[in-house]
Amino acid sequence: GGGGGGGAPAAAAAAGDGGMSIVAYNKNGIQIQFDMSKHPSNPQLTQVNATYTNNNPFPVSSFVFQAAVPKHAKLQVNPPSASVIPANGSGSVTQVFRLSNPMYAEKRMVMKIKMEYDANGGHVSEMAQVDNFPAGI
């Protein structure tokens, strides 16, 4: 037996940038996770893949997420994959942000977020601040 010769460590390393994930928000059954990856040649640029999960027993619809970054940084927001987040964590919605931060080495990133959605017969508007970004974002 045996075998299964040399793997390809380079390919494995490219697949995931370990440790660049944070839970940006977790309240009222809504969890938002940010998975971040740096641009390979420009450290000012970070792609943020946001994943929205709904752990409530009812779906969340008309979901809109807005984010603001400090004046020295810029944020480009792509449209979300859907506006309905299914109930009981049975599916998630994803959204991609591109973050440009010339002061990534000096200042920690802080993001103000706002989300609005309809749930369980009511409209919810919620604001929060994300200040648990890793250094260098």
UniProtKB/TrEMBL annotation:
GO MF, one annotated term: small GTPase binding
Tell me the InterPro entries matching this sequence.
Clathrin_a/b/g-adaptin_app_Ig, Clathrin_app_Ig-like_sf, GAE_dom, GGA1-3
Q: Which GO terms describe its biological process?
A: Golgi to plasma membrane transport; intracellular protein transport; protein localization to cell surface
Q: Does the keyword Transport apply?
A: yes
Specify the protein's topology with respect to the membrane: Peripheral membrane protein
Taking every annotated instance into account, which residue ranges of this chain make up the domain GAE? Answer: 17-134
Location(s) in or outside the cell? Endosome membrane; Golgi apparatus
Question: Per the record's keyword annotation, is Membrane included, yes or no?
Answer: no
Q: Which UniProt keywords apply?
A: Golgi apparatus, Protein transport, Transport
Q: Which Pfam families match?
A: Alpha_adaptinC2
* Signal peptide as annotated in the record: none
What would be one Gene Ontology cellular-component term for the protein?
endosome membrane
- PANTHER family for the chain: GOLGI-LOCALIZED, GAMMA-ADAPTIN EAR CONTAINING, ARF BINDING PROTEIN (PTHR45905)
Q: What is this protein called?
A: GAE domain-containing protein
Species for this entry: Guillardia theta
